[in-house]
Amino acid sequence: MAMTATSSRNFVLASRVSQLAQIQTNVVLASLQELFPNDENTQAGATFSTSFMSTAGDKNQSQALYLLGGKALWTKELEVALKEHVVDMLVHSLKDVPTTLPKGCYLGAILEREDPVDCLVIRSDKPWKSLDDLPEGSVVGTSSVRRVAQLKRKYPKLKFLDVVC
After folding, report:
1. What is the torsion angle, in degrees rounded to the nearest 10, for the CA atoms of residue 102, residue 108, residue 99 and residue 162?
2. Closest by CA position to 57, among listed 69, 44, 48
3. Residues 6+ away with beta carbon under 8 Å from 65
4. Would you say 56 and 77 are in contact if contact means Cβ atoms under 8 Å apart?
5. What is the model's pTM?
6. DSSP symbol at 39
7. Domains and CATH numbers, the chain
8. What is the pLDDT along the chain (165 residues), one digit of tens a residue?
9. Residues in a beta bridge with 47
C-alpha cells in the first residue's frame, strides 16, 4: 500500500502476554517509532500499536514443552493472526520460534542479544555457590531440553529433572 501525503497506516505488533514478551515488544515498538516518526502536522506516516495474546504455552505451564508438542505452543495463535492479517508483525524470543517457519512467515529482524547468562538458585541453608560445587548425584531442575543437553556434557555427575510450575 503506497502512502500519500495525507494517509496514515497503523502497524500492529503482536506477541505473547508474558511480561518478558511485552518488554521485548515495547523495545521493538520504540525502535520502530524512532525509525519511522509520524508527522503530526500532516497526519501522514506510520503509527505502531501492540496486541498481546495468550498462547497454548501460556495456558499450560504444568508440563514440559517437549511433551506438549514443541515450540509451536508459543507461536501458533500468533502466526494464525499474522496470516489472517489481524496483526502485521510478531515479536518472539528466537528460542521460542520453531526451526522451520510456517509457509509465508519470515524472520524480518533479529535484535541485539541481551546478556544470555542463566542463574542458579540454591536453598540458602546449603553451602554451594555454583554448579561446580554441587555433590555427585545432585538434582538440577530446568524445563529446557537445550539447557539439560549443555549441562549434561559439562556436569555428567549431576541429575536433571523437569521444572513444572
Report:
1. -110
2. 69
3. 57, 71, 73, 143, 145
4. yes
5. 0.65
6. B
7. 8-96 (3.40.190.10), 117-165 (3.40.190.10)
8. 555 555 688 999 999 998 989 999 999 999 999 998 877 766 667 899 999 998 766 555 555 555 555 556 667 888 989 999 999 999 988 877 778 888 888 999 988 877 777 788 899 999 999 999 999 999 999 877 788 999 999 999 999 998 765
9. 10
Position 45 scores a pLDDT of: 76
In the three-class reduction of DSSP (H, G, I as helix; E, B as strand; rest coil), residue 45 is classed as: strand
CA 79/CA 73 separation, integer angstroms: 11
Strand order in the sheet with 89-90: 45-53, 8-16, 89-90
Query: Is 96 a residue of the active site?
Result: yes
Catalytic residue among 96, 118, 132, 133: 96
Sequence-distant (≥ 6) Cβ neighbours of residue 6 within 8 angstroms: 42, 43, 44
